[in-house]
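Morning F.,

Quick status update on the modeling queue. The single chain you submitted on Monday has been processed. Sequence for confirmation:
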Amino acid sequence: MTQGEQFEVICRICLEPAPISLSDDADLLAEERLISPCACSGTQAFVHVKCLRRWQKAVMSSTRPGASHTAALICPVCTQKFSLVPPQTGLASRIVKVISNYSCELAGAFCVLSACYFAFAGLNLQTILDELENGIALAREILPCSFNINMEEKCLSGTCSALASRLGSGQPSLHPGSLLVATAAMPSSFFFGSVVLIYEHRRCSGSRGLILNMPLEEERRFEWETKSLPSMHSNALSKRVEHGVGGPVAQNDWMILHRCACCITSPQKQLCRQTLGKEKHLTIDWGVELLPGVFLGRDVSPVLLFTKEETPVVSHQLLHGHAEWFVGQLGSEVKRGFWLIEPNASEALLAMAPQEQ
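Structure tokens below.
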């Protein structure tokens, strides 16, 4: 047979006949052409290019990643190396192959990692939701201040805008004299279980208050009595003043809370003070009246009114330090359920002795 002549043979893989060319044309390795890639003879000599490539791909895909591809390079019949090199697989194909070969291992690892993630995420999910709610509540408190809407003054005068009214509607009624009781939802260990009397509150300036049920150490009490009121070394006088921690801020400072049950109404107030103030040379400063019968000041002279062992009609509580909240913080905490506002603050304070709230 001369060069360039063609004749038909059968592919040893698909068993279909096809022409074969002995020329060196470029189309010799076309997918539909037959070639003799190894030393086999007879019916095993020829194979389609596409069939051989498909067989090589199948062999290569059946081996695990990293293993040798020798089986795809050598003829299993004559054990000679193929003249047709196996096709190189792309990166995407190799990734798919790795995933398919290690599917069980990857699925197991994914399940373990997912379980760990959801275990940790589940613990923090409520915290994330709480923080989001806290931020929204705080933003609603601060928003009127950002637009210079002073609702305390404008709404009392009847000139507040509709926006300010909507923002202020449903907000807790906080004012100087409000009595707050911490709920079980209180996150702060310092304020947990505390009772706080608010003595300063402006929505756009912040709030200040005094804790009423946190006792003071005896050493600090004795130190204060020694420096500030030497006459109180008398047992009769020292028993009439209760000391407590008013808050975590400025604990070297102090204020005294006077509770006068007979000073609730104006006609009784003057008579009560005259009855108590028998010492005419004493200048009595009761301080600011936060609630009917409840006074807050810095003068200890009302304590000196009692010179006998009789049961006093006025109780005194000296509180060291105070608590502070920045703009919108206290209103946000009340709205989130950390504090309850006592509706009858004056009656509650006058009915209970210090440290019994």
